[in-house]
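Q: Hi! First time asking for a complex rather than a single chain. Here are the components, and I think there are four in total. Is that enough to go on?
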Amino acid sequence: MRILFFGHLQDITLQAELVLMLGESGSDELWNKIIALHPGLAPFRSAIRLARNQEYVGSDARFIDTDEVALIPPVSGG
Amino acid sequence: MRILFFGHLQDITLQAELVLMLGESGSDELWNKIIALHPGLAPFRSAIRLARNQEYVGSDARFIDTDEVALIPPVSGG
Amino acid sequence: MKVDARLTDLPIVSDTHPALSPYEVGAWTEFRGLVRAEENGRLIRALEYQAYPGMAERELQRLLGALLRKHACLAAQVIHRIGVVPVGEAAIYVGVASRHRKEGFALLSEFMDGLKKDVPIWKRQALSQ
Amino acid sequence: MKVDARLTDLPIVSDTHPALSPYEVGAWTEFRGLVRAEENGRLIRALEYQAYPGMAERELQRLLGALLRKHACLAAQVIHRIGVVPVGEAAIYVGVASRHRKEGFALLSEFMDGLKKDVPIWKRQALSQ
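A: Yes, that's all I need. Here is the structure of the assembled complex.
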């Protein structure tokens, strides 16, 4: 699955996106994998919302490898 | 003093202004004189505010012959 | 602090942008009250507005100035059209420059309420289609 | 009911007037959020905005559409600028057409609150003077 980083998260990951092959997984598995790759994200986890295929999802969401998953830090438009 | 009528009051008085020589007077005397000349205004008196020289005044106001007095019915701008 | 209040008998042309330092203005809020084709259930082609000239500008200025101070806004402009205003055109324009949006929104809303209480301007008649 | 939501990387040019029947529109309310020269106490020359394209437009559209229905407004347009926005220029424009002013003001205020909660757009960095 494609994992997208936005806002200040890009300053931590130094990349805008990442491709993972995880098979079907829940959000905890996904987060564990992402934080293993980018430990600097850990302190921000509670403030980050996940979007799957451009829709916000809750912590009960399931993800598959064809999904586009975005890590959405607090927004600041306007 | 010049007495000015605005809005629908002009439909009752059929005039936009009136000149009265009353000497110094209070608002009751002024009203009595105006209503004597235009009895059709009587039902609207409680909804009409008075302005003296382009400032709203209360019922305790005194008027002199050089004043410009306006009868202000409920406004409807905007 | 800058307040501009005026009447016009021509179509309203507002300043397109607050003539202020960009150092401070973070919000520019504008309102136009347009004449609707339906007035009290009948179709009209225009409304005719009347003002008490002099006092109307003074009350607009006073109200706008007081609200500018109350809400700590930076500048505001109000233009009210007088005479015949055709359907679809603006009878009133209000523009507010403020640091942040909330005080501009608050000023605008209170200004319109105050206008409809205290400013000697009247809808004089509706002209039928 | 008409909702228009978009991003642009050019200076914002809004529709100058609601493209609607004048039979119904009595209030046209507009807001521009401008970039201020001071950001967190330092002087800047521009802000850089980033969006999650696709999702940002979708969330803008969803939010505006929901509020249009909630407040029974007639039409609304939002344009958010992305990329480098110089000081004094608009980062966002919102225009609302409604029958009366109150529902337009309410929509605008709630829209801006919702924007700052849910729409994936970020101030990416401030460019110093």
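A: Residues 101-118 of chain C form the longest helix (18 residues). Let me know if you'd like any chain examined more closely.
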